[in-house]
Amino acid sequence: MDDLNVKNQPVLKQFVPTPPRPPRKSERGIFGTIRHRCFNSIGNSLLTLCVATVLFYLAKHVLDWAVFNAVFIADNRRQCMDISPDGACWAGVISWFNGLIYGRFPVDEQWRVNIGVLLGLVWLLPLMSKRIPLRNFILLSWIGLYPFVGAYLFLGGRFGEELGLVHGAMTCLALAFLIIIYANWILSALGKKGLNELFVPLVSRLVERRIHLLSFVAVWLLVALVIALGLSQVSLEPVPIERWGGLFLTFIIAGFAITMAIPVGVILALGRRSKLPVIHWLSMTVIELVRSVPLITVLFMAVTLLPIFLPADMEFNKLTQVLVAVCLFAGAYMAENIRGGLQAIPKGQYEAAATLGLGYLHTMVLVILPQALRMMIPNIMTSFISLLKDTTLVSIIGLFDIMLMARNIANDKDWVGMHTEPLVMISVLFFILCYSMSQYSLNLEKRLKVDR
Amino acid sequence: MIQSSTSKPQKSPTKGTGLPSSTTQKWMSLLNNDSSRAVILQAIVLVLVLFGLWFLFANASENLNRLGMTFGFDFLQVTAGFNISWSLIPYDPGMSYWRVFLVGIVNTLILSFCVIVVGTLIGTVVGILRLSDNPLVSQLARWYVEVVRNVPLLIQIIFWFTVVFSTLPAPRQSYHLGEWLFLNNRGLYVMTMESTLSWGWIVALGVALITALYALFRWSKPYYTLSGSRSTGFYIGLVAWALVACWAIWSFSNSTSLSVPTLQGFNFSGGAFLPASFGAAFVAMTVYRSAAIAETVRAGMQSIDRGQHEAAFTIGFSRVQSLRLILIPQAIRSIIPPMTNSWLAATKDSSLAVAIGFPELVSVFMQTSMNQTGRAIEIIFMVMGFYIFISLLISYLLNKYNDSVQYKVR
């Protein structure tokens, strides 16, 4: 019956939607859009006019103060006032610029800070290219080894005297690793084998297994030895930690917090998700306690309680105490982000991993965490941004970070009472840093969405 | 050998199941078995933690002995002896450290309460403006949020304090609004009413009046929904209520006198006083919080299906009506959890007012009192305990509220 009907029916016409009409002429073009969206009713027009007026006067005042009436060259605040009483006195900020960046680091030794930061960036540079193999490995080496190089350059001194021998060995190994990364990069671009394969023929005659690993270790140690010989000739002027400051110190604290937040957070989050009651309750207590108190109290706690609760003969400087506190704080917040990611992983992933015969560690490291971390990238970046902002709190307990340096300008006898300009300057700096971080995270989010 | 449980697939059961239970491998199999390994692992962690705690406390008692200090809360009864620049509850230097703690708590709570209320209001408005069709308005709201939330709060607090509030004129040239409000670089002086009646009675009467009005409306509502007009009883009740209210206001105004701030020497006396540090902390934190809340509100509004906007538009709702009746009630559900976090953060952020010397808990107790008494452990314990208590309380209350607004599903 049905078949018959279908056969006898005429072929149905295909539904063709009428194409949408173009917007009205009055709504097209730039003026049309403006008229349609800003002046489409009396109320809206008034609103637009009000906002435009406010914006105009705001921009005019800010520009007048910051640019047109500002003084860029002067010896002291008096002079600034004489030249232009109602403009910004950028001369003060410029004369203190060095202090804002390096704190009280000795001027002759500041090249070391530059070199140290540059080395850190150069180390991370290969990560930008997608063709480099073992990118995770490079990142791990940066987290594990770069701090030694940085500490050596920033602290100065000689190994075995001011600095420990272990520190020296690690510094040499770190530098050697960096050289191998770059040598391999260049060699692979030339189409040759990597530097770490140098001893493969030699090693393969001696042993049969793990030839490449042994060869790599041999090359690594050799390069490190050469560097150690070189470094033993160099003597850097020691700079005590108390003289670190400015943007440099802010970056050290923020960088340390950011790098430590992920490992601490992963451990705490996995602990909180654990089925073992002791571990679960311990992690949960730590996370909840740390998250429910303000950072400033954690900092006060670290500064006052660590010397009491640790052996009397242990030496402390404020920076170490602050780093411990910030690390704990960042870890607890990160743990909640990561836990969110872990909860979003479907149960099938765990079951699939179990079916493959993977143990807990392998399941987590190879299957679950990569997905969870990737899913949580926006939240993790938000945490990083707030960590960067929160580093300003260390100024309250007296570390000379960029905030305290900026506030100190007002105490300089040449620039007495100059509060506004330094604060505006570091606000702009933080804005640029945090805003670019948040834009980068948005970008990353979009890219990862495309990937999936 | 205990059989490994198969109900925990992520705990690597594969290794433990097939091992022979020979005597040499017995302890190995114990390690490879899920349930026994769990016990061993937990025991190790517990022992390590207990050892760590023992280590810390042994060090602490040794260090305290060496420094000649003792542990105990007896210092709370000792006279503090320092002045606190502003306090809502009566305080003078002759009072104890316990009183200092209470002053700090009250000041912290007042500051965070004001910030939460005003910040939420402004934040909601900015969040809605951010979704405005008018590009000028939405971009203005967007850049307000971007600028405010990308600059550290501490910088903003210090900015408002040193740049705005400290550069206000001296008391003699203060800005004033008639005779009842004076603003100068010391703070804000407001006219207050002083009553011979006790405040408890006044508040009780006010509450009773408002409850009565609410009850009246509630009572007349069934008739109103059925007929569309109010019953006569409602109007009689309203008149009676108005008479009582007039009497209350009349008797109140008879028993009160105004306390006007007047300039005496270099400062004002009379009226209520809010210090400049409160103003700066309040403005900075409110602005900062409003930006965070605006983002929350925007995300919540955007999480509503676009069809809801369009449906409201189709029925002929105005923009305000559709927001009030359709969009906000739905958005509330996804807004509340992040809003809770934001409020908790506001409470915690109030501790930053220490940087400009506003006498809140960290400032009066963790800095001044700790420097004077040296009782670091006890003081940090108390301050952290307070913040933890507040956090738990706020999250508990808001979880309750959250449960009540979520979709009811079986």
From TrEMBL, chain A:
Q: Which UniProt keywords apply?
A: Amino-acid transport, Cell membrane, Membrane, Transmembrane, Transmembrane helix, Transport
Query: Where in the cell?
Result: Cell inner membrane; Cell membrane
Predominant location category: membrane
Q: Domain of life here?
A: Bacteria
Does Membrane appear among the keywords? yes
What is the recorded membrane topology of this protein? Multi-pass membrane protein
- List each copy of the ABC transmembrane type-1 domain by range: 247-441
The record's annotation in Gene3D superfamilies points to: MetI-like
TM segment ranges: 38-59, 111-129, 136-155, 167-190, 211-232, 244-271, 292-310, 356-373, 393-410, 422-442
Indicate yes or no for the key word Cell inner membrane. no
Output one GO BP term.
amino acid transport
Q: Which PROSITE patterns match?
A: ABC_TM1
| One cellular component (GO) term of this entry | ATP-binding cassette (ABC) transporter complex
One protein family per Pfam: BPD_transp_1
Q: What are the GO MF terms of this UniProt record?
A: transmembrane transporter activity
User: PANTHER family given for it?
Assistant: INNER MEMBRANE AMINO-ACID ABC TRANSPORTER PERMEASE PROTEIN YHDY, MEMBRANE COMPONENT OF AMINO ACID ABC TRANSPORTER
Q: Which family does it belong to?
A: Belongs to the binding-protein-dependent transport system permease family. HisMQ subfamily.
Q: What is this protein called?
A: Amino acid ABC transporter membrane protein 2, PAAT family
Record organism:
Marinomonas polaris DSM 16579
From TrEMBL, chain B:
| Topological relation to the membrane, as annotated | Multi-pass membrane protein
Against InterPro entries, the record matches this protein to: AA_ABC_transptr_permease_3TM, ArtM/GltK/GlnP/TcyL/YhdX-like, MetI-like, MetI-like_sf
Q: Where is this region: Disordered?
A: 1-22
Q: Name one GO biological process term.
A: amino acid transport
Q: What's an example GO cellular component term for this entry?
A: ATP-binding cassette (ABC) transporter complex
Q: Which SUPFAM superfamilies does its entry note?
A: MetI-like
Alphabetized, the UniProt keywords read: Amino-acid transport, Cell membrane, Membrane, Transmembrane, Transmembrane helix, Transport
* Domain named ABC transmembrane type-1: residues: 105-398
Q: Where does the record say this protein resides? A: Cell inner membrane; Cell membrane
A molecular-function term among this protein's GO annotations? transmembrane transporter activity
Span-the-membrane segments of this chain are 38-57, 69-89, 101-129, 150-170, 199-220, 232-250, 270-288, 376-398
Instruction: Keyword check for NADP, yes or no.
Output: no
Mark out the compositionally biased spans (Low complexity).
Answer: 1-15
Identify the main location: membrane
Pfam families hit by this protein:
BPD_transp_1
Q: Which NCBIfam families match?
A: HEQRo_perm_3TM
Family of this protein? Belongs to the binding-protein-dependent transport system permease family. HisMQ subfamily.
Q: What is this protein called?
A: Amino acid ABC transporter membrane protein 1, PAAT family
Give the organism the record lists: Marinomonas polaris DSM 16579
